[in-house]
Design a protein that fits this description.
The protein has about 220 residues and is an alpha/beta fold. Helix content is about 55%, strand content about 10%. The protein has ten helices and five strands. A five-stranded parallel β-sheet has the order 2-3-1-4-5, sandwiched between helices. It is globular and about 55 Å long. About 30% of the residues are buried. The C terminus is likely disordered.
Length: about 220
């Protein structure tokens, strides 16, 4: 097993890339999906969020109103930190469990972590490399406005609350620049998959010889 970290800012197309990697054989662990799962009614994180943020974040069906929670934390760094302190340990534990289930397999596991850079979690999971999906600022804003029906001001505010493009790229071992057509993105993902396969081959060779795997190499 080798583990690849996948990240990218809002509107970068990271989720599309994740799907294309799965098509090529990757096992996907989606941190956003896990964050939703650990907040299901009856679980410890759910109870802590309700206790901390109040009953007004609970919908009639007992699920959490994620929009209400987002509104409470969006402009309040302390509230966001308190929410993260509840959710992130649960998500990390679930990621560790799922990685353990793949440990003895010849698998490429992609851990999709939107806030990989912001959370400083790039050293937590034994990553063989970090794959960053990037796009120019104006392209991202256009996607958010036209595809997600955000206002430009809302789009810019959400982008400003994330790591910068430079900060993400500095953590990258491979960058996919997603600013063209789906066919162009498919070709870039194919190149990224070749890079992943080389990492897997290198790791397998080192295990065979009893050595530690080499550090990942960069490519764009």
């Amino acid at each position: 097993m080798i583990v690849i970290g996948l990240t990218g800012g809002i509107g970068s197309g990271k989720s599309t890339v994740a799907g294309l990697l799965v098509e090529r054989g990757a096992v996907l662990i989606d941190a956003d999906e896990l964050a939703r799962e650990v907040l299901e009614p009856g679980l410890p994180a759910y109870a802590k969020v309700v206790e901390h943020f109040g009953d007004d974040v609970v919908l009639p069906d007992a699920s959490l109103d994620r929009s209400a929670i987002a509104a409470k934390v969006f402009d309040d760094p302390q509230a966001l930190a308190e929410l993260n302190a509840i959710v992130h340990p649960e998500v990390r534990a679930e990621i560790a469990t799922r990685l353990a289930s793949e440990e003895n397999k010849d698998a490429v596991v992609v851990v999709d972590i939107p806030l990989l850079v912001e959370s400083g979690s790039s050293d937590l999971y034994g990553l063989a490399g970090v794959l960053v999906v990037d796009a120019p600022l104006e392209v991202v804003i256009e996607r958010l406005v036209n595809r997600r029906q955000m206002s430009r001001a809302d789009a810019e505010a959400r982008i400003a609350n994330q790591a910068t493009r430079t900060e993400r790229i500095e953590k990258a071992d491979f960058v996919i620049m997603n600013m063209g057509t789906l066919d162009e993105l498919e070709e870039m993902v194919t190149r990224a998959w070749r890079w992943v396969e080389r990492l897997r081959a290198d790791a397998a060779g080192c295990r065979h010889h009893g050595d530690a795997p080499p550090p990942p190499f960069g490519q764009t």
